[in-house]
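Hi,

I'm pasting everything inline rather than attaching a file, because the server keeps stripping attachments. The sequence lines come first, and each chain or strand is labelled.
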Amino acid sequence: MTPLLEIRNLSFAYEGSPALVFDHLNLAVQEGDFILVKGPSGSGKSTMLRLICRLSKPQGGSILFQGNDITSIAPAKLRSLVSYVAQIPQMIDATVAENLLLPFSFAINAAKPKPGDEELKEMLCRFYLTDITLRQSAMKLSIGQKQRLAIMRALLQEPLLLLLDEPTSALDPESASMVFSIMERLNTEDRKTLITVTHIDYKPETVSPLTYNLAHRSLHLAS
Amino acid sequence: MNQILTISTAQLLLALVFILIAQASSFIYHLGLNRDITIGTLRTFSQLFLMGYVLTYILKTTNPLLVLSVFMVMVVSAMFIIKGRVKEKQIPYVIPTFLTMLVSYMATAIFVSGLVVGITPWWEPRYFIPAGGMVIGNSMSALAISLERLFRDMRQQKELVEMKLSLGANYREASLDIFRNAVTAGMIPSINAMMGVGLVFIPGMMSGQILAGTDPLIAIRYQIVVMLMLVGSTAVSSVIVMLMVRRRCFGSGEEVLLSPR
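And the predicted assembly:
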């Protein structure tokens, strides 16, 4: 069976630096997988996610999505299928609803059905965001609320693969636990395929992710 | 009445009193501008005297190639001035900017001298060179402002642009606000000039014509053409340059190439 995502012999070095961050890094992700990548800060976890959605460019190797080299897929198309949520959530200076519907303002998502207010409110509940309204400014939310909103927004374009970059690193323990719970439910209930990178010691309660350690410029299966 | 008064060398030097005032202000308040004021003054004298001698020769020429060569030198000089102001090392913006300037300014100058003023031949240096000079001078500042703004905002808002890219935006959609703000920033001075002209200030060209004895009612017609020409050429060159340079801020995978400073 063709993996949903396959990384083959990936190598990467930062511009102007001779030291390789990855050297012959390999990974195969099947549909429905929950991949957890652990590693210390600076080990290249975020870079790996950025390479998967072409926000950065590798020096060598290849990444295949549904069997196709990602360089052969139009960037906007790839990123509507493989959605990346950054470590620090970014919001446009607009309401919660306008932020959530942002993906639908882009040509690639224009034909997708736009969720109505009721649907968005239900989703806000699922994401433990019952204390906010659709019409309030997204800029005034706490970072924990923004993080959940960012994950929700990424999901609204219905990607096949969700990439979460240190989703809890800037959050207090309560918000972090909500985000972990959301991640696990997305995998168990919605059958979403996820790759999450984190440097903290996270032990999932309801799922058994495939856990990898990113060390010595490559991925090593830990479980 | 129509005879223009000449300014003697002594009178010209007397005008340096204004520079002394500027130098004193910089010295007293530690503005750090003394060197720039000195260099600027020397360049004003040397460049304008040189231009005066060149124009005396050029205005009599019947050789279009010579006129176009002068125009080319003016565009190249403007490009060097922009390059000096826009300190961008990562994105190669010089060639697209230069080519756009050359083509759009040439088209504007030809349009104004050949069609609006209706002079024959269209390259008649008495009209073509001043028209070209005004277009180049004005748009050069606009382009420098727009380019600086584009690169600054692309760097400052890199995370926001990447967020939009991650949600399926193409590079045009992800940087639309930055593009608009860059073009607007460059155009605002030209638009403001249209608002204030005749009320707040009398433009240089019109003043020159009036001093030279031209009927003010004729001078204003020239000035109106010039103001419209400046806004149009600034808009065209800014939009084209920003479109081309913005593309160069993204790689083949539409990833942001600018790294934070």
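Chain B is about 75% helix and 0% strand.

If the labels don't parse on your end, tell me and I'll reformat.
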